[in-house]
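Ticket #4471: structure export looks truncated?
Reporter: QA, pipeline team
Priority: medium

Steps to reproduce: submit the single chain below to the structure queue and open the exported record.
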Amino acid sequence: MAHLSNGLSTPSHDGWSALRMFASPAAPNASLVHVTPPRKWSDATFTVDCGWSLPLEQRSCGWAGARSSAAIDRALEAARAAGGGVVYLPRGQYFVDGPLIVPEGTRLRGEGAALVAVYFREDGLHTSPRHGYIHSNNSAAAWAVEDLTLYVTHHYVAVLYVHPATRDFTLQRVRVRAVAWAFLGDPVSGATGRGGRSVDFSASDIGPVVYLDGCNNYRIFDNDLLGTSTLISTGGNQPGVAQLGGGHATNGIIARNTLWNANAAHWLDSVKHVTLTLALTLTLTLTLSLTLTLTLSQTRSSKLSLSGTRCGLAEPR
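Actual output as written to the record:
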C-alpha cells in the first residue's frame, strides 16, 4: 500500500468523479491508497488436440468437416483441473456447438485472430446458450479471451458474457462477427433464408456482443467487434440478455477497439456483403461505477467526425 496526500473534494465533471485536491498546501488531507499487485497467471499450456500431424481430412477437429466442441472442452477441463493456464487453439477452423465455459485462472488463446476462426452453431431464440457463447463458470474470478476470431450468424443472448463473480477479465486482440440475420431475406421475425431457415426472434431479443454483468476490473483492448445490436454493455437492464442480476460493472478500461454495427448479411452475386456498417475506433477509461452501453446507430453518411475520432463506412474483413 502507499500513502497519497490530497485535500478537499471538487464537484464532478462530465460523469467523472474528481480526485480530491489540496485545500491549501499548508493543510493537506492524507488518504490511504491500497495497491494490489498484478495477478500472476499460470503459463501451463493445454493445446486443443485435433491430431495436427494427420492429413487435414483425417483430423478430429480444427477444420470445416469436423465438430470441435469436445476437443476444446477437454482442454478447458484440463486447465480447470490444473488450477488454470492457457487453453491454446492452433491455427484452424473450429465449428462449435457451444457454449465454451472458461474456468478460473484460464486464458482461452488462439494462434492469432487472422489464423483461428471459431464458428458457433446457428441457434434460435429458445436454443442459443444462456448466458452467452463464451462465459466463465459461476465461481471464476479471473479469465481471459485472446487472439482469435468468433463468428455468430443467428440469434445470440451475448457472444461473451462476464459473470458478476469475475474480478479480473481481459478481452484482447479478438475479432467478433455477430450478425443475427446472416443470410436471411429480411432482418425481421419470420424471415426465411439459406437452407429454408426461418427466424423466431426480433431485434429486441438480441443481446450485446460483450455483456459485463456487474463484474469488476475489466480490460477490453485492441479488438475488432461487429454486432447486430449493442456492442459492449456494462450491465443494467439490457434487452435480450439472461441476466444474473449483477448490476453495473465497475473499474475497467476499454481502449483501441474498432466497433461495427451490422443489421444483416446477404449473398449478392456470390459475394458476402454486410449491410450498413459503421466503423468507430473508441478509447474509454472507466475508473468508477459507470453505466455504459455502446450501440452504433446505422447511418448512410459516408464520413463523419466524432470528437476528433474519425469514422466512416467501410467493409469489415
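Status: closed, not a bug. The export was complete when the record was re-opened. Leaving a note from the reviewer for reference: The longest strand covers residues 250-261.
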